[in-house]
Design brief:
By secondary structure, the chain is of the alpha+beta class. 31% of the residues lie in helices and 14% in strands. A hairpin with a 2-residue loop joins strand 12 and strand 13. The two termini are 84 Å apart.
Amino acid sequence: MFSSLGLFNNVPCPDSSCHRPNCVFSHQNQAGPSRSSSSKRPAISPVETNEVGRATKRKSDSTLIPSEIKKAKQVFSTIHSPQTVVETPHEPISPIKSATSTQSLKLSGGVISHGKPLITKHPSSVPILPTDTDQAPKLPLFRRTPQPYADRQKGLQTLFAQFNKLYAETLPQSPKLAQESALAQEEEVSSTSTNLAAYKRSIHHAAVSISRRPIPTTIPHPSIGTIKVSREAYEQAEKASTSRLTRERIIKYCLSHEEMIKWNYPNSTDMSLTSDENLEPSAEGTEKICDRCKMSFVVDGKNLKERFGECKYHHGRTAPQRVEGRRKWIYSCCGRERGEAGCEEGLHVFSEKEDDGKLAKRVPFKTVKQVLESMPRKGEVETQGWVDVVGMDCEMISTTAGISLARVTIIDENGLTLLDELVRQTVTVLDLNSRFSGIKPGELDEAVMDLPAVRSACCAFIGPETIIVGHGLENDLRALRLLHDKIIDTAIVFPHDKGHPFRRALRDIVKEKLGVFIQDRTADLGHSSAVDAKATLDLLKWQVRDDHSS
């Protein structure tokens, strides 16, 4: 226990039969358990408290009266109550300060009254930004660091002075920019410095680096921000500069006429494909070979629901696998061996993509120049100009006319979508091929433009000298019925190890070169033509950067 302060050593004990071993009251002049009520005793000097909290002791020779005994008992009970602190009577009682910031204790009539706890606010956890933007901000106090607060505040002032000088032309646009950058930079330096010496060196190096930056004139600018942010911004700017798809950089990747014939592109010089005579828009009533199950059937656009299930096929491809010691060709869709019954059901479909003459009988091909000449406002379109480089991707479906265009997407070098349009079908749709096209039932009902109208819309951005970038563009050009000779095919820019006629899948090239996953195989959501078109442009930019670095 704590030692007694002896405040009541001169006060007689109010308990006539006190047996406490360490009583705080005086037991002198007590003859025995029985005492005369008329015996003289030293008077209890009541304690008074003045207005400023100074306790004074009043001397008195008056005899002890019952009321004073009662007060003494109250003092006794107060002394033994929890959390009571008493000053010596010979010194003034001063306010007692603690972690909870309690108020001063006062003595009133011999009884100690407890003050109510005061609520103390925690140190600020956010930096203080002065209203005067020419002053450095104040650091928050909530985090412990290996560096003293005073040194950190001094380092902050050094950084603020450099940022304030650097942002001289941009501060009118953002007055607190220098304060915010200084706080972020100081926090970055403090968190990476293990001691005060390392902190001071880092502050000095940071201040020198900031002073050497080019002065920004606009917001945003690569010179704005911390050293890390500014460095990343300049790296991105350098990357964008070296990745710019100028005609001089990419013209060497355009396919020559001989290469287009080699890779089975439609012949852009064959004007017979543009003839609109003897057209047969649909193949209904003719016999075809199913492109899925390889069975012969007659094309018919009627009773589709009743006929559903006439074709049993595998949508996956076969690949050799070693099974029970034998080499077998296994379908990727269901794991069955080649030659087994199909795992899916549908309608018979056909394709004429290998015969440009038959495709021209469905819908004639057109060159870009012919499309522009057929447009009613040719002059207005020409004066607007065309994009130098575009990325294009098309999605196809199966109809009674074979493989038909369902959607076309064109984007520019910066990834901005110039055109994304669904195609209204003029023949019966047999299968939407949603697993690959991404077209869901009912979406084509909202289409407005037919194939010739969509082709004209494409030529609002594609001119005779525009370079079209894509992956396997021969199929897209056939579906669009467009003849063009400025083509870059990423399947040829990044060739297969085995050479012609093998081609690598777009998703594999993108994964290898860009580290990005597209055309997710785990979900049958179909391809996104916008994603595929952008991916081909990004691959070409990667190739241009690689050429620049080598």
